[in-house]
Design a protein that fits this description.
Chain lengths: ~475, ~350
């Protein structure tokens, strides 16, 4: 199936998410759409799959124009989308999810579908147990299920939105093999990503977006320097990190236990010092999230002692922790960090505690204007937080960090950010560390932790099973610890 | 650009309103036809019965005052995401507390002081009733809808017990309520209209004050922030539970004030039906005005007209007076339908 997007525009009020994008995807082609956050990739794909309507422009399928009123119409024509978070029913079994929408609801031929699922899965080398509930699958396995489900529905075009986020190396290899096989069968694949490496290894052709417009296209083999230039204008530099001078103790924990998450937090003992940059590694849900919430006073520990800057503090009292100089940045921005329905100015007004009763609106507006410029947020003071793209939401969150904190606790601070944004975030954080701030961050990318942290803690099943200086370890050793082998 | 935009959004609001009215009229007309009544005549009598004369308009304003007070209060609780169904009981407790104070102070010879204290007592009564629901919610984890509903029943029972028990009229305990207060404890009214200027001033004042609080003070912003995302609001140093109690307190206080005016300015005694369902009606008013403090008084006026105007229907057209309830209900449904339709279209 040949897809042509012609001069697609999409405006959200004054924001031009797509500004005249044209591209063609040939049958049997793996087409990469590359761009930093907020470049307009997701918007373009939502238009192609019928979730939103373009303000202007047309979609041609096999040279005949189509107009999708809703996602069902585009999937009827054979366009299937694999979302970052697969849209499945977590409490139902794999097989039930697979069968959904395929049966008439009267005669359920379970065995037939079980065979079909098995056959398709094996042909791609996927191993999924059909009888366990979907909530017990990893993200990668849920992706695999979604791919075979879409194939059974008879799709001709598969759109994938950042498919390699949150899946293991093995799963990624399997996924790429599967996509190559699909392309060889004559199906088209559209890969939306900000990861250069993925696009380079997989795609036949790449279209690069920037600020809602096409900045270039390239056929395989790719010139990395050239692609980076199309994405960012100029290639980003690596962050500089000087060896830290450690100062007094900032945070101490003694035998702290807490519940929550998959594993909770068990028997946590540690001391963090001024100027220290600590990376928390581990599979997601191994206790890092609970640890950060306990250390920031958001969550109350069930047992144990916490000492903040020399004095004992009662757990679970966020304002007391905040008063002592801690700040916490949660990973789920719109769920935990920002307030949908409030503008950026209103966020700064909440942040600004200069007056007790009346809101200093003019001050907050000025502050919003300054911060937007300083943090290079794409939006206006009156833009709603939920209308910002993921990367800009992260910048907004970062802009709330106090000027002179003592302890910063960050959960996946660069998740979903493109290279340039991530680099910029680390530069800012390193500046903090140089001012003797203690920084603790969780990240799912080992490379990132090794690059910026001085000290690394590995979490496994709620416990810290490794605590090392980053120059005394390597990715292999850490990888083994993440998998639960501490020596 | 800015002006253009506000004109545009004003136009959208107007269009919404007109569409809602059309849907509502179609629906009501259908019901009137089914009931075998001439629709035009019915509408005419509703209009004549509410805006037809100064006397009937006076009745409309008398209904508008408690409706507006309760609506202003409910805006606080809706802001923070609470469904304060208990507003009905809060009106009743405001009335009970006021009555208690007026009975107690009847022979003090200080009418102004007693009436002033009665206002405070009414506010306190409503606020206490609301705070109970608030604490049940924040400390006990009881959904505020159930807590409020339960407290409504308790308040209604309490009023009946008072009227037939300790506060019964000598000799004739009846549904007609307690012994009327001495004349000097009535809120003074405009001659002929029987509207208490104090009540009118308080209702208007409540609307203005609410608008100012929502727009310019921390309270307004905090309620909005917590209502949209309580978890993130905590990271901004806000205490959701404390703010929920505050919102309940404001809503309950205003509802209690409405109850007070029902007692001191309208009936001059405590009645079993002292709240006249104005609390439930106010919930609809606020929803229909899309939680907007400036729209709420207008919608309240419309509801007051319907309420008062339809009193005519049984007498003139031999229709059941519950028809006004049907019209109000269909108004809510029509609004929700139009809103849903617009949201869907804007996607």
């Amino acid at each position: 199936m040949r897809i042509e997007l012609q001069d697609i525009h999409k405006y959200y009020g004054p924001v031009r998410a797509n500004n005249g994008i044209s591209l063609t995807v040939a049958p049997g082609e793996i087409h990469g759409i590359l761009g930093e956050n907020g470049a307009g990739k997701s918007t373009l794909m939502k238009i192609l799959t019928g979730f939103i309507h373009a303000t202007q422009g047309s979609i041609l399928i096999n040279a005949s124009p189509v107009k999708f009123q809703n996602p069902a119409q585009s999937s009827q024509l054979g366009i299937g989308m694999l979302y970052q978070d697969p849209l499945d029913f977590p409490l139902m079994t794999v097989l039930d999810n697979f069968m959904l929408g395929l049966t008439d609801g009267l005669s359920v031929e379970t065995d037939q579908f079980r065979d079909k699922l098995k056959e398709l899965a094996t042909s791609f080398g996927f191993q999924i147990n059909p009888d366990i509930p979907v909530q017990r699958l990893t993200i990668g396995e849920r992706q695999q299920l979604e791919i075979v489900r879409l194939l059974v529905l008879g799709i001709e075009v598969l759109v994938l939105d950042e498919p390699t986020t949150g899946i293991s190396e093995v799963q990624k290899r399997l996924l790429f093999q599967a996509l190559k096989k699909l392309a060889a069968d004559g199906k088209s694949v559209i890969l939306v990503s900000h990861k250069l490496e993925d696009v380079e290894t997989l795609c036949d052709r790449v279209t690069v977006l920037r600020y809602g417009a096409v900045t270039g296209a390239m056929e395989s083999p790719f010139d990395t320097e050239e692609l980076l230039k199309m994405m960012f204008g100029a290639p980003p530099a690596q962050p500089l990190r000087k060896a830290a001078q450690l100062g007094a103790s900032v945070l101490e924990m003694k035998q702290v236990y807490a519940s929550g998450g998959r594993a909770g937090l068990e028997d946590c003992n540690l001391t963090f010092r001024e100027g220290e940059m600590i990376g928390l590694a581990g599979l997601e849900g191994s206790g890092q999230g609970v640890f950060l919430r306990v250390a920031s006073g958001v969550q109350k520990p069930s047992l144990g002692e916490i000492t903040l800057r020399g004095s004992r503090i009662k757990g679970g009292d966020y304002s007391a922790f905040k008063y002592a100089g801690t700040a916490f940045l949660p990973a789920s921005r719109l769920e935990e960090g920002l307030i949908p329905g409030l503008t950026m100015t209103e966020h700064y007004a909440l942040q600004n505690k200069n007056s007790k009763f009346l809101i200093p609106w003019t001050q907050a507006y000025q502050q919003a204007k300054e911060r937007i410029k300083l943090f290079r947020i794409k939006g206006k003071p009156q833009t709603f937080a939920h209308a910002l793209s993921g990367g800009n939401q992260q910048r907004l969150l970062l802009s709330f960090l106090p000027d002179k904190p003592k302890l910063l606790l960050l959960e996946n601070p660069t998740r979903g950010l493109d290279l340039e944004s991530a680099h910029w975030v680390w530069q800012r954080l390193c500046n903090y560390a140089d001012q003797k701030v203690c920084i603790v961050f969780a990240s799912s990318e080992l490379d990132e932790i090794l690059m910026v942290a001085d000290r690394i803690l590995v979490f496994f099943d709620g416990r810290i099973i490794k605590d090392v200086k980053s120059d005394e370890t390597d990715a292999d050793e850490l990888g083994r610890a993440i998998a639960g082998k501490s020596d | 650009m800015q002006l253009n935009k506000s004109l545009q959004s004003g136009f959208t609001l107007l269009l919404n309103g007109v569409l809602t009215l059309i849907v509502m009229f179609c629906f009501t007309t259908l019901i009137l036809l089914v009931a075998g009544a001439p629709p035009l005549a019915a509408y005419y009598h509703i209009f004549k019965g509410s805006l037809g004369s100064w006397i009937t308009f006076g009745h409309v304003i008398k209904t508008w005052i408690p409706l507006t007070l309760c609506s202003a209060g409910l805006i606080y609780t809706f802001r923070i995401g609470l469904w304060n169904i208990g507003v009905e009981g809060q009106i009743m407790m405001g009335a009970v507390f006021s009555t208690a104070l007026l009975r107690w102070g009847a022979d003090w010879n200080q009418p102004f002081g007693v009436i002033g204290l009665a206002f405070a007592a009414g506010i306190a009564g409503g606020a206490i009733w609301a705070i109970i629901a608030g604490f049940l919610k924040t400390k006990g984890g009881v959904n505020e809808i159930f807590a409020g509903l339960g407290l409504n029943f308790v308040a209604q029972g309490f009023i009946l017990w008072l009227i037939f028990g300790p506060w019964r009229r000598p000799g004739v305990a009846s549904m007609s309520g307690t012994e009327p207060f001495p004349y000097q404890l009535w809120l003074s009214t405009w001659p002929g209209l029987r509207i208490a200027p104090a009540g009118l001033a308080l209702a208007i004042g409540a609307v203005l004050l609410t608008a100012l609080i929502l727009k310019y003070t921390r309270v307004g912003l905090n309620l909005k922030a917590i209502g949209n995302n309580a978890q993130a609001a905590r990271l901004f140093g806000l205490n959701p539970q404390r703010n929920m109690i505050l919102a309940m307190l404001l809503a309950g206080g205003l509802a209690g004030l409405a109850g007070n005016i029902q007692v001191t300015g309208v009936y001059h005694r405590l009645l079993p039906a002292i709240s006249s369902n104005y609390g439930y009606l106010a919930l609809m008013v606020v929803m229909l005005s899309n939680y907007n403090i400036w729209a709420a008084p207008l919608v309240a006026l419309f509801f007051a007209c319907l309420n008062v105007g339809s009193i005519q229907l049984p007498m003139v057209l031999r229709l059941d007076s519950s028809l006004s309830g049907v019209i109000q209900g269909s108004l809510v449904l029509a609004t929700l339908a139009v809103q849903a339709w617009r949201v869907k279209r804007n996607k």
